[in-house]
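SAMPLE LOG
Freezer: B-3
Tube label: C17
Construct: single chain, 265 aa
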Amino acid sequence: MIKLGVNTVLFKAFSFREAAKAIAMAGYDGLEISAIAGMCEHLAPFGYEEQIDEIRDVLAETGLTILSMEAASHDPERMEKAFEAAAKLGIPIVNVGPGGKTGDEETFRESLKSLTYLAERARAHGVTLCCKAHVGAAIHDTPTTLRAMAEITDPGFGVDMDPSHIYRAGENPREALPAVLPRTRHIHIRDCKGPGPSPGDPLMQTCGRGDIDLFGYFEAMVRGGYDGPVCLEVIGRECTMNEAIAIAAESYGYMNACLKRLGAR
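STRUCTURE (predicted):
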C-alpha cells in the first residue's frame, strides 16, 4: 500500500510534537521529518542524540512512522550524521536536492560525483539516498534525471520524483513519471498555480488547488507499480497552525480519494 505523509517543514513554526499531532489528526500514515539547516530542524543531524527520545515518544503517542527525512545538504559531515540518525530511528530514505546550476555541465558533473559518494555512505548505514529534479539546479528535468540514473549505479541511490518541479520544467508529470519510476524510491508531492518558477503561496500548493494533473500522476504511479511513500512537501512563508492543518487535511483527502479510486488504498 502506498503510504501518505507530510514533510514537517509545513509546520516549521511549531514543535515536532505539535506537527506530528496535527499530521496524525489529518489522517496520514506517517511523516517526513525536516532536517533542513536554516529552515526547519525538527531533527538536527548535529545533536540528534538529544532529540531521539522525544521523537520516539511522539511517534508512540501519535502512531505515526517516519517515512523519510529531508536533509537538503551535500556537506559530507552533516550527511554522515543524518544517515546515522536515520539508521537509529529506522528512517529508510534521506532526501536531498541536486545542487549545481541548470545548463552548467561542470556543476552537473560535480553534482553526480557528490551524489555518488553520498549514496555509498547512505548504503553503508542501510539507508537510501534520494534526489529530485529541482528548478534551477543541475538536475532539473526528466532528461537530466535519466542521465543521473544512468551514471549513478550505486544501489544506495534513488530518485525522489516531485511533479511540481517537473511541471515547472515545462513537462507533463503524468507522462514523465514512467521513465524514472524504475529508480523512484520516494515521491514529494504538491500542486502549484502557474508555470513558476516558484510553486506559489503555500495554500495554492494544496493538492487539487493548482494546475497539475495530480490524478493522472497518481494513475501513472499506480499503473507503474510504485509502492513507496508519497510525502506532501509545502514550502514558502511560515504558515499559521490553522493554515498548515487546512493544507495537510485537504491534501490528504484529495490524495486518499485518488488512491482509493485507483484501488491503491
